[in-house]
Design brief:
By secondary structure, this protein is of the alpha/beta class. The protein has helices at residues 4-15, 30-36, 54-59, 64-70, 75-89, 140-159, and strands at residues 20-24, 45-50, 93-99, 115-122, 127-134. It has a single domain (4-159), classed as CinA-like (Maf protein, Alpha-Beta Complex). Strands 2-1-3-4-5 form a 5-stranded mixed beta sheet.
Length: 160
């Protein structure tokens, strides 16, 4: 999947000499896939991590107490994911995504089974821009595409 929005994002980041990194969970590398489908992505993408488990979110820098206090399915965890990946890679922008795509998680029995949390951290402003999405599509792929599209729209809006 290649999108015009992601092309614009890559062009803006390249022009501004800025970099981006991604820590995603329920999107399973989908955001990174869309980024790397664009020519020139290697100029801006520093690193990505698919952290499906709590263990690896913590290993990548998400404080364990945040997950314990708010759950892995929370905006607080998404915020920490975006900050941790930015710090780990020294990127200008970090994206954190966590949530469930219409499916219960036997290991984490809390939160709605159809809610996803997204956080975009912009280092130069030391600020997170957050939103959540209620997934309503029939398939995981459709839900992932919806999340990625909303992320692209928000990121493009922030960069302009």
């Amino acid at each position: 999947m290649e999108t015009n929005n992601m092309k614009q994002i890559i062009n803006i980041l390249t022009k501004n000499n800025e970099t981006i990194s991604v820590m995603e969970s329920c999107t399973g590398g989908g955001v990174t896939n869309v980024i790397t489908n664009i020519e020139g992505a290697s100029n801006v993408l520093k690193f990505s991590a698919v952290t499906y488990s709590n263990e690896y979110k913590i290993k990548m820098g998400v404080p364990k107490n945040i997950i314990e206090k708010y759950s892995v399915y929370s905006i607080e965890t998404a915020i920490e994911m975006s900050k941790a990946i930015t710090k780990f890679t020294n990127s200008d922008i970090g994206i954190g995504i966590t949530g469930k795509l219409n499916r219960p998680d036997q290991n984490n029995n809390y939160g709605k089974d159809n809610e996803v949390f997204v956080s975009i951290y912009i280092k130069k402003y030391n600020k997170n821009y957050n939103f959540n999405i209620i997934t309503t599509k029939n398939t995981r792929e459709e839900n992932k595409n919806t999340i990625i599209e909303k992320l692209e729209n928000r990121l493009l809006e922030l960069l302009n």
